[in-house]
Write a structure and sequence with these properties.
This protein has a domain of 127 residues: Alpha/Beta hydrolase fold, catalytic domain (Rossmann fold, 3-Layer(aba) Sandwich), CATH 3.40.50. It contains six helices and six strands; from the N terminus they run ββββαβαβαααα. It has a six-stranded mixed beta sheet with strand order 1-2-4-3-5-6, with helices on one face. Strand 5, helix 2 and strand 6 form a beta-alpha-beta unit. The chain is globular.
Length: 262
């Protein structure tokens, strides 16, 4: 995003029961009579942010944001080690979007997605094409193996020093193999300190290649963690999302790529 509209606050918020013991936090801002648009955040595991509200003209759009299953303010939160993620799959996330559309009485809407939100937008549009008027996509991903290799290895040619730190964050036996799978194992480790270190290492590397600058600050669209005591979040399908002690990754999905969708 190169231009943002002024800050805006929601005029309506709520928690939507989507079944399986899951409740989604949602909010609506902008013009109640404007063109409907839904924003699908990255992660998976991050949540929507106040900055995301500023992507649309509040005079022209009715903007819906929500935290996906196990993310942000939705419950249960994936950062709690005891949370079972078996009811967090791509088809269930797609169904959640449709339930929210029906709950808000919206017939059709523009679908905006960033990073992981792009893969989810693709899946939603395939399942419910009659409900999508347009798609706005950024940091486009489709969840194939090539993208995972680009994130975890190919960008090391651009930032070799930072990549070496990222590679060395996993055990020596894993450094020449699938780094995403190795980080997934660390993020599932029973030791909270191991999980936190792996999450920080992943986010440090991601910040570099997302911003295309060494020693980068956290990405603009990253949602803050709800509590510094919480452990890393998880991917909707097969693996955990990287998280640091202060934030959840904006686009990392350390395990499970390729899958359909990312």
């Amino acid at each position: 995003m190169t231009a943002l509209y002024p800050p805006v606050e929601p005029y309506e918020t709520g928690m939507q029961d989507v079944g399986d013991g899951h409740w989604l936090y949602w909010e609506v801002c902008g013009n109640p009579d404007g063109k409907p648009a839904v924003m699908l955040h990255g992660g998976p595991g991050s949540g929507c942010t106040s900055g995301m509200r500023r992507a649309f003209d509040p005079e022209r759009y009715r903007v819906v944001l929500f935290d996906q299953r196990n993310s942000g303010r939705s419950t249960p939160y994936a950062g709690d080690p005891e949370v079972d993620l078996s009811a967090n799959t791509t088809p269930q996330l797609v169904a959640d979007i449709e339930r929210l559309r029906e709950h808000l009485g919206i017939d059709r809407w523009l679908v905006w997605g960033d990073s992981w939100g792009v893969t989810l937008a693709f899946a939603y549009a395939e399942a419910f094409p009659e409900r999508v008027t347009e798609m706005v996509l950024g940091a486009i991903t489709n969840g194939d193996r090539r993208e995972t290799d680009w994130i975890t290895r190919d960008m090391g040619r651009v930032f070799p020093r930072e990549w070496a730190r990222f590679r060395d964050g996993v055990p020596p036996a894993d450094r020449d193999g699938d780094l995403s799978a190795a980080y997934a194992r660390l993020l599932h480790d029973p030791d909270a300190a191991v999980r936190a270190r792996a999450a920080q290492d992943w986010c440090d590397w991601e910040d570099v290649h997302v911003s295309l600058a060494p020693d980068a600050a956290p990405y603009l669209w990253v949602a803050p963690r709800r509590s510094s005591s919480r452990s890393p979040g998880s991917s909707p399908t097969t693996g955990p999302t990287a998280a640091s002690s202060s934030r959840v990754s904006c686009c990392a999905t350390p395990a499970g790529w390729p899958r359909s969708p990312g």
